[in-house]
């Protein structure tokens, strides 16, 4: 996700519209992105390090003729982001073993034939407490409700409203500091997709727009801080945080999701496949 950026908001008029060939390319990269996340389902276990998971993702991507967009992106050195428990996003894979009861978001972006597919899911490590599972289920429902708001003539604030209304009704909070983004040949493009209502930025959706929806939802307060590594964003109150992300396109009649799991592993109960 990108940092919520005021300059970007001012570029609301310059949103790229893509044609049928771009949609074909997005289907191909989106499917491969979902298959990469599917591959990791069996691997996320207590005792396994996020570095080991990152390596598997790298090898899968390389072996399928694609490239990991995050590797060397603004100095980032890994293929995936692995965000555990109170980490909101951009957790950096390392050698520490995952522990029973952790929830971890794995976020991966692939480049295939020059087009980007970006998706993330929550994975359960062993036996996970019910309240952590509930947060993951709520966050997944936020993503689905956000996607359901997408159609020509609707606006980005309709997406934000769908997500914020549901999250807050469930007594959770929506992270403000990171947002979804347009993508295509470019990794982070306009429009900005806020996961809450912000009347100062509201773009009408039109057929041919390509973007991610990637709500980050906290059990506690919405505030985050970025650690001294320059990437890892954590909740200030150390409450649990969850995220799901799909890459979608606006069609003539509604929305197409490019990063659906062929195996259904992106739906509850997620990685129990
Ligand atoms: N995949 C993330 C997103 O959703 C971006 C991660 S950038 C990285 O946009 F450099 F941290 F990997
Ligand atoms: Co993204
Ligand atoms: Co992502």
UniProtKB/TrEMBL annotation:
One of its GO terms (molecular function) is initiator methionyl aminopeptidase activity. Substrate binds at residues 90, 188. Its EC number is 3.4.11.18. GO terms for biological process: proteolysis. One of its GO terms (cellular component) is cytosol. InterPro entries: Creatinase/aminopeptidase-like, Pept_M24, Pept_M24_MAP, Pept_M24A_MAP1. Residues 24-252 form the Peptidase M24 domain. Binds 2 divalent metal cations per subunit. Has a high-affinity and a low affinity metal-binding site. The true nature of the physiological cofactor is under debate. The enzyme is active with cobalt, zinc, manganese or divalent iron ions. Most likely, methionine aminopeptidases function as mononuclear Fe(2+)-metalloproteases under physiological conditions, and the catalytically relevant metal-binding site has been assigned to the histidine-containing high-affinity site. Pfam families: Peptidase_M24. A divalent metal cation 2 binds at residues 118, 181, 214, 245. Signal peptide: none annotated. It comes from the Bacteria. Keywords: Aminopeptidase, Hydrolase, Metal-binding, Protease. It catalyses: Release of N-terminal amino acids, preferentially methionine, from peptides and arylamides. It is an enzyme of class 3 (hydrolase). Belongs to the peptidase M24A family. Methionine aminopeptidase type 1 subfamily. This is Methionine aminopeptidase. It comes from Microvirga aerophila. The lineage of its organism: Bacteria, Pseudomonadati, Pseudomonadota, Alphaproteobacteria, Hyphomicrobiales. The gene is map_1.
């Amino acid at each position: 996700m990108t940092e919520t950026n005021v300059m970007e908001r001012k570029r609301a008029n310059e949103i790229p519209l893509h044609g049928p060939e771009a949609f074909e390319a997005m289907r191909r990269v989106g499917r491969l992105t979902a298959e990469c996340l599917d591959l990791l389902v069996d691997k996320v276990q207590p005792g396994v390090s996020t570095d080991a998971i990152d390596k598997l993702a790298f090898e899968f991507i390389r072996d399928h003729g694609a490239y990991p967009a995050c590797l060397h992106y603004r100095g980032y050195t890994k293929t995936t982001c692995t965000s555990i428990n109170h980490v909101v996003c951009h957790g950096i894979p390392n050698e520490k073993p995952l522990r029973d009861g952790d929830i971890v978001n794995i976020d991966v972006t692939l480049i295939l034939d020059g087009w980007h597919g970006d998706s993330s899911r929550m994975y359960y490590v062993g036996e996970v407490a019910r309240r952590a599972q509930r947060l993951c289920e709520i966050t997944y429902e936020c993503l689905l409700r956000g996607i359901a708001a997408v159609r020509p003539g609707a606006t980005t604030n309709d997406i934000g409203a769908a997500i914020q209304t549901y999250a807050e009704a469930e007594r959770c909070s929506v992270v403000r500091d990171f947002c979804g983004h347009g993508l295509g040949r470019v990794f982070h493009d306009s429009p900005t997709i806020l996961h809450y209502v912000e009347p100062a930025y509201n773009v009408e959706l039109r057929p041919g727009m390509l973007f991610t929806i990637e709500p980050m939802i906290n059990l506690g307060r919405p505030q985050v801080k970025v650690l001294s590594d320059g990437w890892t964003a954590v909740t200030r109150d150390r409450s649990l945080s969850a995220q799901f992300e799909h890459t979608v396109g606006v069609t003539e009649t509604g929305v197409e999701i490019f990063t659906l799991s062929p195996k259904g592993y992106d739906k509850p109960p997620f990685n129990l496949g």
